[in-house]
């Protein structure tokens, strides 16, 4: 790994020390007596470029220190099918259909939390096409507006969710399909983080 600037070395140690309760940019600035938040942001970016740090672009407080647990250049993600799961079933419970090699740097979060599904149908076009490989981050929580891999009515699917009061509405990107209310067994399997387009 490339040599660190003294400030970056201090910053990395501070991030490591607070990994369970991450600090804000402003708190890091105060802790290290750095002149501005933009300087903190610059040093964090340098830690990423030098291979010491990996951040979730959607949540800057979600990061992994790669020098503590380095990732391999190539990782194999489990590929699951979008199929009927049965009552309270999960697509992640069965054996994966395949394991797909992918460059770890293409995944913006710890690769151990990643899985893939192969899209079917045209309901998420033009964003996701049939046969595309969809990368998702495992988890049962999602925010309104997220595109998720989910189980609804025993069926695994990819949909954008909208939360209204106590209800969840499932929305297709393709306007030919109408939004509909989530079933009682609705469960998020993971939030979609990337799409690898099929090759013709």
Write the layout of secondary structure elements.
Blueprint: H1 6-17, H2 25-32, H3 37-49, E1 53-56, E2 59-65, E3 74-80, E4 98-103, E5 114-118, E6 133-138, E7 147-152, E8 155-164, E9 167-171, E10 180-181, E11 187-196
Parallel strand pairs: 3-5
Antiparallel strand pairs: 1-2, 3-4, 5-6, 6-11, 7-8, 7-11, 8-9, 9-10
Helix pairs in contact: 1-3, 2-3
Describe this entry's structure for a reader:
The protein is an alpha+beta fold. It folds into two domains: 6-65, Arc Repressor Mutant, subunit A; 74-196, Umud Fragment, subunit A (Ribbon). The protein is 16% helix and 34% strand. It has a nine-stranded mixed β-sheet, with no helix packed on it. It has a two-stranded antiparallel sheet with strand order 1-2. A hairpin with a 2-residue loop joins strand 1 (53-56) and strand 2.
Looking at this protein, list some descriptive labels.
single chain; 200 residues; alpha+beta; Arc Repressor Mutant, subunit A; Umud Fragment, subunit A; nine-stranded mixed sheet; two-stranded antiparallel ribbon; elongated
């Amino acid at each position: 790994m490339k040599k660190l600037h003294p400030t970056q070395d201090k910053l990395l140690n501070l991030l490591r020390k607070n990994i369970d309760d991450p600090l804000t940019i402003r708190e890091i600035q105060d802790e290290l007596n750095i002149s501005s938040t933009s300087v903190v942001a610059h040093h964090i970016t340098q830690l990423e470029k030098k291979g010491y740090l990996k951040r979730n672009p959607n949540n800057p407080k979600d990061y992994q220190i790669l020098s503590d647990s380095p990732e391999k250049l190539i990782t194999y993600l489990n590929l699951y099918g979008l199929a009927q799961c049965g009552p309270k079933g999960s697509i992640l419970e069965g054996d994966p259909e395949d394991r797909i090699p992918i460059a770890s740097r293409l995944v913006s979060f710890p690769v151990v939390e990643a899985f893939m599904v192969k899209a079917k149908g045209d309901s998420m076009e033009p964003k996701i096409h049939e046969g595309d490989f969809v990368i998702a981050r495992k988890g049962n929580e999602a925010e309104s507006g997220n595109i998720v891999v989910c189980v609804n009515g025993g069926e695994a699917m990819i949909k954008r969710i909208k939360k209204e009061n106590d209800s969840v509405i499932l929305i297709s990107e393709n306007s030919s399909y109408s939004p509909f209310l989530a079933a009682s067994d609705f469960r998020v399997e993971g939030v979609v983080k990337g799409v690898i387009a099929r090759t013709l």
